[in-house]
Amino acid sequence: MFRLRGWGAEYEFILTRDGEMKDMKGSIFQNDYYDKKVKEIILSVKPLPFREGMNVDEIHMRIYLGFQRYDEIDINIGGSFIDNKEIFSIGINTSK
Three-state DSSP class for 12? Predict the structure, then answer.
């Protein structure tokens, strides 16, 4: 993960079909408070990302939450197919 200006924390983990989170790794960018809050948010929400017809048992997740200093809103949505895996991403940077 590239480091943006500001504070933040990022977690990377594998989410299984039954909702278990495995191999959680974290990174902190300048502030332990964000590390604690991001981990609390991830652990408090039990996502159900598997829709009917999906042919996978695990999804690799990367979640970043932080405060950035930008004067504009920038939204990026993308997808790619790397190493025989579909990869989708959404990035939103705001000034607030």
Answer: strand
Asked whether the beta carbons of 9 and 34 are under 8 A apart, the reply is: yes
Q: What are phi and psi of 5, to 5 degrees?
A: -65, 135
Give the three-state DSSP class for 29: strand
Assign 44 to helix, strand or coil. helix
Dump pLDDT digits (tens) for 6-59.
667 778 888 887 778 888 787 766 667 767 777 787 777 666 667 777 777 887
pTM of structure: 0.52
- The domain segmentation of the chain, as residue ranges, is 6-93
Question: What are residue 14's phi and psi, to 5 degrees?
Answer: -110, 130
CA dihedral 20, 23, 24, 25 (to 10 degrees): -170
